[in-house]
Write a structure and sequence with these properties.
By secondary structure, this protein is of the alpha/beta class. It has a single domain (2-170), classed as Rossmann fold (3-Layer(aba) Sandwich), CATH 3.40.50.620. The chain contains 7 helices and 5 strands; from the N terminus they run H-E-H-E-H-E-H-E-H-E-H-H. The protein has a 5-stranded parallel beta sheet with strand order 3-2-1-4-5. Helix 2 (49-61) crosses helix 3 and helix 4 crosses helix 5 (124-135). The longest helix has 25 residues, at 2-26. The mean pLDDT is 86.
Amino acid sequence: MKGLMTGFAWLLVVMLIAVAGLAIYVMPRDDQVPAAAEAVVVLGGAGPERAALGIELAEEHDLELVLSSSASIFGRWQGLTCGEDAICFEPSPENTAGEAENVARMAEERGWDHVVVATSNFHTSRSRMLFSQCLGSDNVSVVGRTAADQATDTNPRLMLREATGVIAGLTVARAC
């Protein structure tokens, strides 16, 4: 009986990860950029598509540009200078939850009521969840872009990491 319960528990975990994976990869949702938005935050990691998206959104909607960690490197490739063209920061801790926590402090200091997050498609669900935990769901919009290397968006290891990250963010590893 104990073995049956253990097997059932593992099946439940796999099913939860599969459902989370579907939400993350098959049906990622992009939010609209509201007129009330004041800043666009480009998350670190991944490739240059995040920085390009953030720069486009900042220019199109006249938003303050905020670059996290490696995103500032991609910003420099596009001719941007930290401190002049963009606000750059190193999140602590160095993960999406850390980025959300740092941006929440920045938003309070600068009086931002609404922040747009620019990330990769595969990362929109977890980013939305973590930033909403820090800023409130009405104060954040998340926009994703397909990775330059499209294989990245369908990488099974990455899918598993994002799915488990969503589960952790809902339970034991909440931001803020």
